[in-house]
């Protein structure tokens, strides 16, 4: 069981790291804005106090070290998803990983962003309050597919 958990943690880190590398590629090559983890850090700070949803996270009370909290939360969630995949897929999958289970998990996890984080930040369900909501949704799906590739690649490296 410990081996499965350790591999899950490694996969979560690998998947999240690849997702962050993808964000740098989008920024450098396609001039997309870099992810801003400060509002997510503020959200995590309020979440710890029991508040999930905000009209505008930018108007909510600030916390010290929001950016670090956002980055830490980003990786903690990625690790949680990696452990979840390892537990659901099991030791047989870890011994011979295939992409499909990782991709299914990656796409399913978009739902947490669309139905929890984004409304929590005040941008609506699936970024509905943003003028470029469809672009954000498409980028979310691609980023979580890249995350799944990172989960899978890390599992391949560890088999």
Can you offer a commentary on this structure?
This protein has 159 residues and is mainly alpha-helical. It has one domain. 75% of the residues lie in helices and 0% in strands. The chain contains five helices and no strands. The chain has helices spanning 2-30, 38-48, 66-95, 99-121, 133-158. The longest helix is centred in the middle third of the chain and has 30 residues, at 66-95. The two termini are 15 Å apart. The mean pLDDT is 97.
Low-confidence stretches: none
Euclidean distance between termini CA atoms: 15 Å
Q: Provide the succession of SSEs.
A: HHHHH
Question: How many whole angstroms does the radius of gyration measure?
Answer: 16 Å
What percentage of the residues does DSSP assign to strands (E)? under 5%
Major β-sheet annotation? none
Average pLDDT over all residues: 97
What is the helix tally? 5
- Secondary structure class reads mainly alpha
Portion of residues within helices: over 70%
Number of strands: 0
How many domain regions? 1
Shape: globular
Oligomer state of the chains in this structure: single chain
Write the layout of secondary structure elements.
Blueprint: H1 2-30, H2 38-48, H3 66-95, H4 99-121, H5 133-158
Helix pairs in contact: 1-3, 1-5, 2-3, 3-5, 4-5
Short description:
The protein is mostly helical. Helices cover 75% and strands 0% of the residues.
Entry keywords:
single chain, mainly alpha, 5 helices, 75% helix, 0% strand, globular
């Amino acid at each position: 069981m410990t081996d499965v958990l350790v591999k899950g943690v490694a996969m979560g880190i690998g998947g999240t790291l690849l997702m962050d590398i993808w964000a740098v590629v989008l920024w450098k090559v396609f001039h997309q804005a870099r992810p801003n983890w400060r509002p997510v850090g503020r959200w995590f700070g309020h979440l710890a106090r029991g508040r999930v949803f905000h009209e505008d996270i930018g108007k909510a009370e600030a916390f010290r070290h929001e950016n670090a909290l956002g980055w830490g939360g980003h990786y903690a969630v990625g690790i949680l998803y990696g452990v979840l995949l390892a537990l659901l897929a099991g030791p047989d999958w870890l011994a011979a990983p295939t992409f499909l289970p990782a991709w299914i998990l990656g796409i399913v996890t978009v739902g947490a962003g669309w139905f929890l984080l984004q409304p929590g930040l005040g941008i609506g369900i699936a970024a509905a309050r943003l003028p470029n909501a469809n672009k954000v949704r498409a980028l979310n799906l691609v980023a979580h597919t890249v995350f799944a590739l990172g989960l899978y690649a890390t599992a391949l490296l560890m088999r």
